[in-house]
């Protein structure tokens, strides 16, 4: 998926998992772009190229940072030092990214197991799934924002 769709779906996931906390939505959206740190050509990879390049060379794309292990370890590292909405929103945002990539391609979800899991799609299906996901996420964000204001 595109980085913007990952961000939007991470916001929805963070909002839902933290019981409607807008801070959970923000952290979920930010965390949802972290898994692409394994791709030096991605938005986050270009920003953190000195980290992204070695991760890509050692592990490849859609492997360790696209795994359940990565999401759980990130939450476990944050847990003792942060409030619940931070570690929960972060882990959930990462999982939203991974699940989004599984809809448009394959990831090593159970890394270090070698099997890739997901749906292989062509470019047109990738775009359709990405846009539908973005529209649904925007609808959710707009709906919950309006509901809060009323």
From TrEMBL:
The keyword Nucleus does not apply. The chain crosses the membrane at residues 63-79, 124-142. Pfam families: YdjM. Coiled coil: none annotated. The keyword Transmembrane applies. Keywords: Hydrolase, Membrane, Transmembrane, Transmembrane helix. PANTHER family: INNER MEMBRANE PROTEIN YBCI-RELATED. This is Metal-dependent hydrolase. It comes from Virgibacillus xinjiangensis. The lineage of its organism: Bacteria, Bacillati, Bacillota, Bacilli, Bacillales.
